[in-house]
Predict the structure.
Amino acid sequence: MTTALRHQIVIVGGGTAGITVAARLRRAEANLDLAIIEPSDKHYYQPLWTLVGGGVFPKETSVRPESDYIPDKATWIRSSVATFEPSNNVVVLSDGRRIGYDWLVVAAGIRIEWDKIAGLPEALGKGGVCSNYSYQHVDYTWECIRNFRGGQALFTMPNTAVKCGGAPQKIMYLAADYFRRHGVLAQSRIIYATAGAKIFAIPKYAATLEKVVARYGIETRFRHNLVAIRPGSREAVFEHLDSKETIVLRYDMIHVTPPMGPPECVKDSPLADAHGWCDVDKFTLQHVRYPNVFALGDNANLPTSKTGAAIRKQAPVLVANLLSAMKGEPLTARYDGYTSCPIVTAYGRLVLAEFDYDHQPRESFPFDQSKERYSMWLLKKYGLPWMYWHGMLRGRM
């Protein structure tokens, strides 16, 4: 089959990673023939959804038109990707069109797998079942929190990679603080049921979070993986990942962090590793088998947390190495695994965790970021959104 359309660089995905790379490429080389494949006409700043779920902002604050962030002179292909044919330098669209490329950047994000939890798709958004991972339902989280009058509140974390591994805890701490401020914490039992084995992977920040958990009287249930919701009886069913025991917990409200996995277009393509993620060198972001393919963000198999902050550091490395590869030069830029997780611990308090591939702190400020600070809350609430819309997506930060 012939390829009707071809571009010098094709970027798959118009989310955080794709737009940041596109903006940086346009700033570096104004005459590049650049195309972005993205079906959505809306762009979401998803880190704000924690604060939307906590009643700080309306959800509309987090969304803007995608068209506002497509770089000038870039071709916007309004479609989704069905698969990749890297041996032919072709992207196959869901409508059957074939887009050729000289160079490819894969930034297709992550797939939320609501249906991996039995009963969840039908239960979500009513009956006390909420999730900040859905724009459609994020405001229901706030409804659940503000109407809670005591009882059992569950917060879950799945046995998969997720967007921002700290987000499941952030909304729990906001809920606990709201309950405390409104006199219902003493009548509440808050349970954090996580598939993980500890509260946080980096000891420096884990020490602070353990104190936060104790302050609110939160009960931690480690190695608990949510497998089903029974909305009729308000029960959550967990599998203990070590003992394989089935554990049933009743809930008055439950915030669910759904399982997530690689996008199907990547998972089912030659670009994938054994687990379905785009298979790249973790330092250069170049594909390990196809040298004219690069990837970053949530769909890449980089062994670090999947956050927008990680993309902020990945994008300049990818752009530098892509431009070097286009000139036949060595790839000298290196990504060290930097990521960041601003962990809200109360209204007006935040721990800014920053670390690298080796789980070593990589802090940006000249003070101990493991301490809860009001200044970091202001950064999360005002500074980071401004940096996102006016910096990252414009190729400036």
